[in-house]
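Internal tracking record. Fields below are filled automatically when a chain is submitted to the structure queue. Please do not edit lines marked as system-generated. If the sequence contains nonstandard residues, flag them in the REMARKS field before resubmitting.
Queue: standard
Priority: normal
Entity type: single polypeptide chain
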Amino acid sequence: MPKKDAKQPTFWEQITSMNRLLRLFVVTIFAISTTLAISPLIDSIYLQYFFSPETRIIPSLIAMIGGVCMYIVGWIYLVGSARQIILVTRGLKWYMYIGIGTIIIILLWMTGLLLVSL
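SYSTEM-GENERATED OUTPUT FOLLOWS
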């Protein structure tokens, strides 16, 4: 018979208790989705205000820097160093909200592209 006072782990406790390799995978997915989510915005601003043939690579570099920053923040808050205990902090919660938000933006964008092409 199961115990009545057995406490279910919260979402945040489940996230922090995941395998380190799985947490690294989550951070990587969030970094890629951040890069994909900010690319159209950066491209449109660049093409409208700053375009010159000599600086064509600038939007890609800015989007890449955004993804690398998301990766570094994720490493600090979610992956950590070997045998480091990951704590549930406000920064971790913000990181997860932003990461999930970028995935939702990408999914909505891709769904919109699919619907437009029909």
